[in-house]
From TrEMBL:
PROSITE patterns per the UniProt record, alphabetical: FE_B12_PBP
The protein's name in its UniProt record: Iron ABC transporter substrate-binding protein
Alphabetized Pfam families for the sequence: Peripla_BP_2
Domain Fe/B12 periplasmic-binding: 37-339
UniProt-listed Gene3D superfamilies: Nitrogenase molybdenum iron protein domain (3.40.50.1980)
InterPro entries reported for this sequence: ABC_Transporter_SBP, ABC_transptr_periplasmic_BD
Organism in which the protein naturally occurs: Terasakiispira papahanaumokuakeensis
């Protein structure tokens, strides 16, 4: 089923103790009015949950999938430093949907399960696991921050806020989210209206150096962020879905104006070093190595120094608003000379997140003449 916006503005009471919502898979779901035990079908949903739960995001987490621990090691370490009880949250699976255990999920006795629409690291909308959870009396709702982030982030936050009783917190974040995106939308609209806007092409090399060349967003995911930021995603020319691969020959023939890699691990783990424990020097040196590998080093963008990188988890988090601002600066440096994505990130964390904004999440190499 195609993702649709959640009908969160007028949920109706089905009884004195339950409410009815429409999730991002278009499913009508009856959820408890007071949720005390949450099951996270992807561990990285802790980022979105943190925005709504304030200073204690683990207060209601009864169990979670293992992707946060296993694949986002810097993020997990940052949370663990502030919340050591993260180690005690029961795992209900590993880092893939196939490892999700319905038996372990039911053992944590959840009031509500939250799943990702894409079903990449946990069960998807049509999975047998979801059917079994619902048959056992566990309501399941689907959210989406990855497949179509610009379309679905606001309704997903609204849905979560209503389901867990955090509607005012959801409204506050949505206001901040829209204002942050408007800092990009409005200057671009004025420049476009004045006939002064070009559309540079861009290649996002997802998990660069950590997999065969080359992962890329297509029609969705980071691709939507590139379009909002005033660029053309070359991956959309070949990939019909949200994420896919591009062959080196196509990348070379497209010769994009700007090159962006994504990274997630710490120093020594390969790829671009970005995240909560990364330093500027580590980020720059690792990006330089990644951008010089064949065939990427042959691109005009790399030879000219139009080389950047950003945190890979932006692809699946409401924090992608920071990525939009960074992309806008990289694509249109003169138009966005005063825009400060790092300050936006600091403000986001000060207002909504329970951990400090440590580390490096975007990085650029010095620009040289083409």
């Amino acid at each position: 089923m195609s993702p649709v916006q959640a009908d969160t503005g007028s949920s109706k009471s089905t009884s004195t103790s339950r409410i009815e919502v429409t999730d991002l898979a278009g499913r009508q779901v009856s959820v408890p009015l007071h949720v005390n035990r949450l099951l996270l079908g992807e561990g990285r949903m802790i980022y979105a949950l943190s925005i709504l739960e304030g200073h204690d995001p683990f207060a209601r987490v009864a169990g979670w999938q293992g992707d946060f621990r296993g694949l986002d090691v810097q993020g997990y370490a940052a949370y663990h430093a502030r919340f050591p009880e993260a180690d005690q949250v029961p795992l209900v699976g590993g880092t893939s949907a196939e490892t999700f255990s319905v038996e372990q999920a039911l053992n944590v006795n959840p009031d509500l399960a939250i799943m990702a629409l894409t079903g990449g690291h946990g069960p998807g909308p049509h999975s047998e696991a979801v059917k079994q959870l619902e048959a056992a009396g566990v309501p399941v709702i689907f959210v989406d921050f990855s497949q179509h982030p610009l379309r679905n982030t606001v309704p997903s936050i609204q849905l979560l806020g209503k389901a867990i009783g955090r509607t005012s917190e959801a409204a506050a974040f949505i206001d901040f989210y829209q204002q942050s995106l408007d800092q990009v939308r409005e200057p671009l609209a004025k420049a476009r209206e004045a006939g002064q806007l070009n559309t540079p092409s861009l290649f996002i090399d997802m998990l660069a150096g950590l997999q065969d060349c080359c992962g890329s967003p297509g029609e969705g995911n980071f691709g939507e962020l590139i379009e909002l930021a005033g660029g053309h995603n070359i991956g959309a020319d070949k990939i019909p879905g949200a994420i896919g691969t591009l062959n080196p020959e196509f990348i070379l023939s497209s010769d994009p104006d700007v090159y962006v890699a994504t990274g997630v691990f710490g120093e020594g783990r390969g790829g671009v070093t970005l995240g909560y424990s990364a330093t500027q020097a580590q980020a720059e040196s690792s990006l330089r190595a990644i951008a010089s590998r064949p065939p990427i080093g042959e691109l005009t963008a790399v030879r000219a120094g139009r080389v950047h990188a950003m945190w890979h988890i932006f692809y699946d988090s409401p924090e992608h608003l920071i990525a939009v601002q960074a992309l806008a600066k990289w694509l249109h440096p003169e138009l966005f000379s005063t825009l400060d994505p790092e300050q936006t990130r600091k403000t986001l964390y000060q207002r909504f997140m329970p951990i400090p904004p440590t580390g490096v999440f975007t990085v650029s190499l010095p620009t040289t003449a083409p």
